[in-house]
Automatic annotation (TrEMBL):
Subcellular location: Cell membrane
GO molecular function, one term: efflux transmembrane transporter activity
Database matches in PANTHER family: OUTER MEMBRANE CATION EFFLUX PROTEIN (PTHR30203), OUTER MEMBRANE PROTEIN-RELATED (PTHR30203:SF30)
Membrane topology (UniProt): Lipid-anchor
Protein name, as recorded: TolC family protein
Signal sequence extent: 1-21
């Protein structure tokens, strides 16, 4: 008896070793690189504005109210929250796979066997007294508990649960990244709306100036000092300026509607103080050091967690080549009469252990294993690409902040000079010391310069928003 047990044990060990010997070796996947430069070009700051709360970074109370509303009502953000809940439930499902499954079972049935079957022939050939003969048809009543448990010898199930946990954490980081983008999009749209208001105001001011100039030209034409050509040119310029306002009004409506959509509401009037747009200061940007991006940027942390999950998926896929062990057990009562159902003689139980291992035609397992390795390599490249993209984004936005600040100051000086030139040209024209063409050109140049100034200011504000986003601010 002992020899049989020893032989069976040795046979089991040899079978397991032979199966494990057929398992392919894990493919070599290069390690990811998270090395970044020591600084953002000439910047040597050690403090990052990403740590500043968005309510402090965007001091405009109207903008703060819009962002706060969006964080509560934005539909896309709420959809992402449900995806996080789905990921959380996946963890529970994975955790349950390596715990025993226990269930209760109860049943009742009836059976009539044929006389010329195995069961029917046995019953007819036995000398059974009429009072102890099986009922016909034969009822069957059963109640009991049954359990099954796959032994997680190779930690396949536990690694699958850890992988699900990492993907859940990655989905949380994805939500944080969406918050950062949502805050930036609302802030950019809000500043764009303020810029459009200022553009409309500039056009309306120029309409008033050009209307006065047209009246003067008409008076001089009536006095035979000018021809109808001058009147037509002034009137054409006035009509062109008036036409500009309609596109801007349409842009204002669409921008307001976009902000309302982002805040989860229907179109409405957006409160803002557009008069202070040109006075909004862009403070010095503290970018910190590039290595801080690895902690501040949610998309980098998301890529890192996805890479860690992909590594565990490779381990899980490799474990599919190993034998799996399952224990099944059951206990209960079964009888053909309910009166006998609780008697000790009606008790039944079973206990079994199964070993199963893939031996022939393992193409599906091999394919999944290779796919897991390929997905792991994909996540390595994605992680490195995310870091590189974050660094380039910060460098670009730092440059934009500096250059647009200088550009705004230069353009502002040009606007001041052209505004003075408009007054000078009008005075010279009234005293017949300047040609009307000079007045037209000066007014046109002043209008274009003022509109360019608003456009540069808008880019400057977008750079302020985007550098905050690029450094990973807003989500915390």
């Amino acid at each position: 008896m002992r020899k049989k047990i020893v032989f069976k044990t040795l046979a089991f060990i040899l079978l397991t070793v032979s199966i494990m010997g057929c398992v392919p070796q894990q493919q070599v996947v290069r390690r990811e690189s998270n090395a970044v430069p020591e600084s953002f070009r000439s910047s040597t700051d050690s403090t990052s504005i990403a740590r500043v709360n968005w309510k402090q970074y965007f001091a405009d109370q109207n903008l703060v109210a819009l962002i706060d509303s969006a964080l509560k009502k934005n539909q896309e953000l709420n959809i992402t929250l449900q995806e996080i809940e789905i990921s959380s439930n996946e963890i529970r499902a994975r955790k349950g796979e390596y715990l025993p499954f226990v269930g209760l079972r109860a049943g009742a049935g009836v059976e009539k066997v044929g006389q010329y079957t195995r069961d029917g022939a046995v019953e007819e050939n036995l000398e059974i007294r009429p009072e102890t003969r099986f009922p016909e048809p034969l009822p069957d009543f059963m109640a009991g508990a049954f359990a099954s448990w796959e032994l997680d010898v190779w930690k396949k199930l536990r690694n699958a649960k850890k992988s699900a946990t990492l993907r859940y954490l990655a989905s949380v980081e994805g939500r944080n990244f969406m918050v950062t983008n949502l805050i930036a999009e609302i802030a950019s749209s809000y500043y764009e709306l303020m810029a459009l208001d200022n553009l409309l105001g500039i056009i309306q001011q120029n309409i008033a100036i050009q209307t006065d100039a047209l009246q003067i030209v008409k008076q001089q034409k009536d006095a035979a000092k000018l021809t109808q050509l001058a009147v037509n040119r002034f009137e054409a310029q006035l009509l062109n300026t008036r036409n500009l306002q309609y596109q801007i009004r349409q842009d204002i409506i669409e921008t307001e509607n976009r902000i309302a959509f982002l805040t989860g509401g229907f179109p409405k009037n957006i409160q803002r103080n557009s008069a202070a747009f040109n006075d909004i200061a862009v403070d010095s940007v503290f970018s910190g050091i590039p290595s801080q991006l690895l902690k501040n940027r949610p998309d980098i942390r998301q890529a890192e967690l996805q890479l860690a999950a992909a590594r565990l998926d490779v381990v899980v896929a490799r474990a599919n080549f190993y034998p799996s062990f399952r224990i099944t057990a059951g206990a209960g009562f079964q009888a053909f009469k309910t009166a006998y159902l609780t008697s000790p003689e009606s008790m039944l139980y079973n206990l079994a252990g199964d070993l199963m291992a893939p031996l022939i035609n393992r193409n599906a397992i091999k394919a999944e294993y290779r796919n897991a390795n390929a997905r792991q390599l994909q996540e390595v490249y994605n992680y490195e690409r995310t870091i590189l993209n974050a660094y380039v984004d910060v460098v670009n936005q730092l440059s934009r902040v500096q250059n647009f600040s200088k550009s705004y100051e230069t353009k502002k000086q040009q606007v001041d000079i052209l505004v003075q030139s408009v007054d000078i040209s009008n005075n010279l024209f009234r005293s017949a010391r300047a040609d009307y063409v000079e007045v037209l050109l000066t007014q046109r140049e002043a209008l274009e310069a003022k509109m360019d100034l608003i456009e540069i200011k808008t880019k400057q504000m977008n750079a302020k928003v985007n550098i905050y986003k690029a450094l990973g601010g807003g989500w915390n």
